[in-house]
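Protein modeling request. Please complete all fields; requests missing the sequence field cannot be processed.
Requester role: graduate student
Desired output: 3D structure, token encoding
Chains: 1
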Amino acid sequence: QQQQQQQPQQQQATLEPASTRIRSNSSARTSDAIGQLPEGWEVRTDDRGRTYYVDHNTRTTTWRRPSQDMLNERERYNQNQTNMVQAQADYRNRSLNMSVDSSSSSSDQQEPNDGLGPLPRGWEKRVTPAGRPYFVYHPARHTQWDDPRTQAQSPIAQAQQLPLPEGWEIRVDAQGRQYFVDHNSRSTTFEDPRLKLLNTADSDSSNIPQYQRQFKQKYSVLRYSYCPKIPGQPFKMAVRRDHIMEDSFYNIMRVTPDDSGFCNILKHRLYISFAGEDGLDYGGLTREWFFLISNEMLNPMYCLFEYAAANNYQLEVNPKSFVNPEHLQYFRFVGRVVAMAVYHEKFIDNGFTLPFYKRMLNRELSLTDLETADPEYYKNLTWLLENEIDELYLGMTFSADRELFGEVKEVELKEGGCDIEVTDENKEEYVDLMAKFRLNRDTEEQLKAFMQGFHDILPQEAIAIFDERELELLLVGLAEFDVKEWQTHSVYRNYTKSSKQVVWFWEIVAEFSNEQRARLLQFVTGSCRLPVGGFALLQGSNGPQKFCLEKCGAPGSLPRSHTCFNRLDLPPYPSKADMKKKLTLAIEETEGFAME
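Delivered output (596 residues):
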């Protein structure tokens, strides 16, 4: 965490170069046990014996030792701030109002012969070209990997998908607790009457789909059941723009949970004011505050989060966050702000990786989750699975290296792992353990603090009905995509701008709804949002990577995506209608990945 220097001797030297100020102080230490510090940096020790570093270039301090990666991050962050005005305009245009076609598809349902019985009504089992089974729910036109017959769901979540019995109403008391009114008997209760409907329902539950992927319906359940409007005075918060992190942290963390276990004061209507500025908050200042605070609290310079390997605008927890002694309190603060954004129908501006959203949902991580978080790591592990390694003598054991401030430690993936050699027989277990090691990154304590803050506002049941991609959409929202800008910052392989397939493609994108464009972008890049700077700054595995269309595949095959390289393999379809049909099918009913 960076802190502004207040020493008088530094304030008097504001007009001198950093190197001159250091030379004028003969006792300044410009190196430590690790080596020489960058130009303009000095190492000091406070009264408690703790080492910190002074950057005379910017007159700031940090607990983190400066490195070239850190300086590069700072330079990249400063460059991104120049695009803040345009990003704010894009942020204000976000919306969750999507047109969803709820019509059912008329398709023959395949009855799987696997001993689990027939699928629920509307479901179909299919198999990918690689032989992996997946399930299609035709009423919502969505797919999932999990078998709906074995997928667990809480009775509360099932009940919330049912309509209330006739004569019943949901209300909220002064403490924000939801209760139910039975106008038939003129009585009230805290127990959901729909739970009784589940207990007395006929054993044939095909009329109640166990998994409903229609985002709009899930969003309605969230708003209706967990985000009621609480009457009373608004929660007022005055912040300074140049100290928005400190002021927001103080105002939000001073609120403690009440008898209900939630910080219901933070659920009141927000009223934000910026110091030294005239303005009344009718919603615009609150939206701007969420935009600014999410940019600030998720800034990797605070060491709470860091950019993922695949997309440097997607974030994951920094395992070294403990360099900030109060890091767990800050993670709880971030959790509260994220939950407040959900409750007040606002968005955060920076997004997390898909594995982070799965961890929020308490869902099991797997090897495929590595593709968006660390594609190089993913490719190395999949290579082990696809090749015989016994005769290669790789010398690998069930252990991994963990680097911490230049010191590398060996960590066992299982008990006695340092003495267990990886072979063709046990490599699947090794790959599974290594994938989870990379995705968890020893950050369970930080995630626990984050979720504690989130649960100060909303219970876990509020987000349990979403999957990780829907949770990303809920938190980040949709941007209004400029098709012309998208087209301007795209490149082609084996196609040209004038190729008829390319012309058809952009005509189809222009005809798509905003939701379909978001799905297309997510299908190709792994995220439904854009970085600060728009399509010109789309990130790939090795930095900026433009959206790419490549002529690849047979005319009868579906488009494929390479999320590491922002590339779409588009076969040479004979007609625009055929291309639109195949492209729509790909982005709505498949998950397309390719390896290079």
